[in-house]
Amino acid sequence: MLAKFAANPYKSLGRKHKEPEPQGRNNFQRDRDRIIHSSAFRRLEYKTQVFVNHEGDLFRTRLTHSLEVAQIGRAIARNLNLHEDLVEGIALAHDLGHTPFGHAGQEALNQCMKEFGGFEHNLQSLRVVDYLEQRYADFDGLNLTFELREGILKHCSLKNAKSLGDVGQRFIKKQQPSLEAQVTNLADEIAYNNHDIDDGLRSGLIKLEQLEKVRIFSTHLQIVRSLYPGLAERKLIHETIRRMINTLVVDLCTQSIANIDKEHPESVDDIRRCPPLISFSSDIKKQQDELKHFLRTELYQHYRVNRMSEKAKKIIRELFSAFINDTTLMPQEYQSKSKEENARKVSDYIAGMTDRYAIREYQRLFTVSSEW
Ligand code: MG
Q1: From the CA of 284, how far away is ligand 1's center (Å)?
Q2: How far is the CA of 126 from the centre of ligand 1 (A)?
Q3: How does pLDDT run across 183-210, given as a tens digit for each residue?
Q4: Are 204 and 352 part of one and the same domain?
Q5: How many domains does the chain have?
Q6: Which of residues 264, 288, 305 is at a domain's end?
Q7: Distance of alpha carbon 108 from the chain centroid
Q8: Maximum distance among all alpha carbons in the chain?
Q9: One domain for residues 155 and 234
Q10: Which of 60, 267, 322, 365 has the highest local Cβ count within 10 Å?
């Protein structure tokens, strides 16, 4: 049932290190399985999405976010006859390179790494699966297929693209990745916009009245209110959000099928040469943008989120400066002789930390107590 332009695990562009074909599963399943067994994947459980992990047990973490992206992505892939295993693998791996403390952490680490080539979570996810995971006797990293690695690298600068080899090529040639990669990218957007509303309301940082001014939310809120007058707020919110997700998924599938029909691609290679084919309709895209704008101004820049972000940045900055000035403060495997390499190792060490590990490491380094 796969479309002729779907990615095909039997025609994969392959892995960096040659391996025997897997038995009883295809190459994309093997990729997905390797990701699930990696330690970076387990650490997602303790990394912030918007709210710091210990703020409450009900908020999304990077792990539950990645699972939601996989669920939405697979639903879309099945509708479009694309390869679900590849979408699932990309979804589960897409955030592996995130620092502790979400975007605040990444901003601070990027600032610290300015003279050393910067820090970008997308590139770091690729670094995790290409080098940092230490599990297999024959190679560093997870040795994933080209298609999975291409899907992880959503964007990168031309300068970085040149040093990335095969997966950097499309940025130089200005080509698109597989439709599976395009689907996962938008599934990510659908997932975080919707769960951030949910978490934002649950935290009390945003109120239902504010969201009534956001078109995509209020449309569905009105429908639910008229169908179920007097419904308790928790259910009202969930009924609204599930309808929003459904609307976005259905719109994305309908518009994407129309885009594909217009270009009639015959192969994955055609997909690479076409304009991006996975998209929302222009009206829904506009509504999504309104929602994003709302979340940016009302939630991500809420003063209580800002306070946490400032603390997070301080932790990252101070850890970085302690380690870069004296690398012997880090575990041995992160110590190195050259200055350039040092900075990257410090950055790898910090990026790999969970929120609570970073907080503890900060206390261990800077607080005088009997605890080590
Ligand atoms: Mg994400």
Answers
A1: 20
A2: 14
A3: 999 999 999 999 999 999 998 999 999 9
A4: no
A5: 2
A6: 305
A7: 18
A8: 68
A9: yes
A10: 60
